[in-house]
């Protein structure tokens, strides 16, 4: 079972390693460190191995926004990204939760649709030739008080 907890400074090496594997470089290391320090980053782990992470903050027009969702390639397509998204929905304090992905990232778009996020717009000119697709989910009005989850939180 996937375990999820708030990231700590001790997790930074693993977080940055996974990000570099997926992204292909270490350009976000400082940004990720700031997210961990701010309490905006959560890690998914099995046993003692961190296998993915998610960053949620209020950077998108003061709305809750999942800025990064990264799963180690070895653990992709096993529901870890879904677990992380569901956890963010459970801890989100706002009525709406936004995220975005490139138009070319069909895997993330499928996950958003599976979790009932709706497309809320497209932003051109961020990545040349690959528009950013914005997704939103109303979460506070439709969720019961006890949100069922297969994720075990510590």
UniProtKB/TrEMBL annotation:
Residues 2-140 form the N-acetyltransferase domain. It comes from the Bacteria. InterPro entries: Acyl_CoA_acyltransferase, GNAT_dom. PROSITE patterns: GNAT. Gene3D superfamilies: 3.40.630.30. This is Acetyltransferase.
